[in-house]
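User: Please predict the structure of the protein below. I'd like the answer in structure-token form so I can feed it into my own downstream comparison script.

Assistant: Understood. Taking the following sequence of 417 residues as input:
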Amino acid sequence: MSVVGFTDIIQGPLAQYVQYSQQIGGDVAQHCQLVQQAFKAQLQFLELASQSSKPTNPNDLVIFLKPTSDIIATIQDFREKHRTSPFFNHLSAISESIPALGWVAVSPAPSPYVKEMNDAGQFYTNRVLKDWKEKDKRHVDWVKGWVQTLTELQAYVKQYHTTGLVWAGRNVPIGVPPPPPSCPLPPMDNFLPAADVAGNDRSALFAEINKGSSITQNLKKVSPDMQTHKNPSLKQGGGPAAYKISGVNYSSGAQQVDKPPVFTRDGKKWVIEYQKGNHNLAVENAEMNNVVYLFKCFDSTVTIRGKINSVVIDSCRKTAVVIDSIVAAVEFINCQSVQMQMFGKVPTISIDKTDGCQVYLSAESLDVEIVSSKSSEMNVLVPKGNGDYVELPVPEQFKTTILPNKTLQTVVVENKG
């Protein structure tokens, strides 16, 4: 029944997601083919689990999961290679949430993990809806198809694998002959050394599985901004908290990708990537329909001269952006210790999954709207008129109560410390 239940997901909401992806075409259609492969790989693994007892050696489980892990890595790598795609938000929504297939290594409660991965992609699915709901209904249906796929996956896991992946060796009815001890291991040239997953530490095993392509030395590694689980603390202890993934982590132990710096203009888009210790970056002669995209910059400063449409700061650390004027919005995503200073007007500032964000406003931009989520240590500095600034913290803590009419009321909890 477990295999049949998973097949229903493939033939139901996943099939609808694939149908809408093919209708949209382009990168979305190519991406969905990889997603199909990932679900088929998991189906094959579930078929194996339904016929086998649980492996006693963690290395065996890593090997069984390798096909799924590899295709997840390919899905995420596809997104990295198509950052200039007009459907980048579509690709990001899938890449952020596809690790939901890693539920097979989570215990004792894998169902909440699937929901957490579904929520991880919500930021990008919301952007797809915002960009396309008035233009093309197929994109709205595409979002519904993918969200429904993960929603039904969560329900499936809760029903058939409530406390963890069920192998044939568990819960076998009395009188039924036990299944074979294990299926033969698939052929494999290179696999994770035993020393990397020694013992029965499931959290360490899960971290290794979801590293994607880093499970083998011959495959290209997925960049850390996609591997939100890549926090060394996950390899300590075996409790459910070890599987919590809350977004990009740039803690001192996080690995950084060392790639050549990029500063280029691609049509209307300025791309600034992998800059390190460079405080003389300047975007000159920008036009109102141009966008600036910063990615994985560290200890750098970018000055944008002129009026520009929007700026996106993605996965940057200790980076500052100085801007003359913005037509639409400035967005911070997956950043740590970042700053921006406005000399002109900015209508909207979005801060998502960011720890440490200082926003210096001008007198012209005091009517700005600031939208924040899953972020901390945010401060807005408002000019006093004499060259000084007043620092105002953005609330991070809220209190929610249930009203007599069965609705929720949420208020900000002030920090008086």
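That's the full token string. The mean pLDDT is 79.
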